[in-house]
Amino acid sequence: MDRLLLLLLLLPLVTPLLTADGGVNAKEKLIHLRFYWHGILSGPNPTAETIARSPVTNASATLFGLMNVIDDPLTLGPDLSSRQIGRSQGIYVSVDQNVVGLLMVMNFVFMDGKYNGSTLAVMGHNQVFSSVREMPIVGGTMLFRLARGYVQARTYSFRPEIGDVVVEYNCYVLRCSDY
Ligand SMILES: *[C@@H]1O[C@H](CO)[C@@H](O)[C@H](O)[C@H]1NC(C)=O
Ligand SMILES: *[C@@H]1O[C@H](CO)[C@@H](O)[C@H](O)[C@H]1NC(C)=O
């Protein structure tokens, strides 16, 4: 096939981005990352702690007004002892008066491999008892500069008596290959 024609056919597959100096040269690639997020509320070393509760609705069934701060380990496998690739640092707030629904604001801070030192920022709605929760990736740093995408969270295990939870996260990220 004619080379120019081939080039024209392939062109729409790469999304051009405007760079700071006005040039168009960056390419985006969809990548998939999967890891497990450990919310540990029990024991002497919790990774999630309650920092605020509403004095009015504290006892509500949806925990409306509860705010936790987290520094949750992210591991490659579902077991806490499997390879740790980063931490999820942020807060979540119970913001729904009818079902348990959280506003999640967190950074995935990667500490291993290629993405060591890079972060992804997630902000979204997490109705924790739904089987799949989707939240937007709103940006990132270093290798994830200008990133966007979404995550799908699925509860892997939950121990209601102590509150500990393991959640499988599948991240679909448009990553700019210039970084
Ligand atoms: C909220 O409820 C918890 C658990 O029932 C209780 O331990 C805590 O003291 C209450 N906090 C407030 C601010 O009412
Ligand atoms: C991640 O990067 C930090 C800072 O450069 C370095 O100290 C650390 O050893 C790296 N971790 C891994 C697992 O490569």
From TrEMBL:
InterPro entries: Allene_oxi_cyc_Dirigent, Dirigent. Keywords: Apoplast, Secreted, Signal. GO terms for biological process: phenylpropanoid biosynthetic process. Coiled coil: none annotated. GO terms for cellular component: apoplast. Belongs to the plant dirigent protein family. PANTHER family: NUCLEOPORIN-RELATED. Homodimer. This is Dirigent protein.
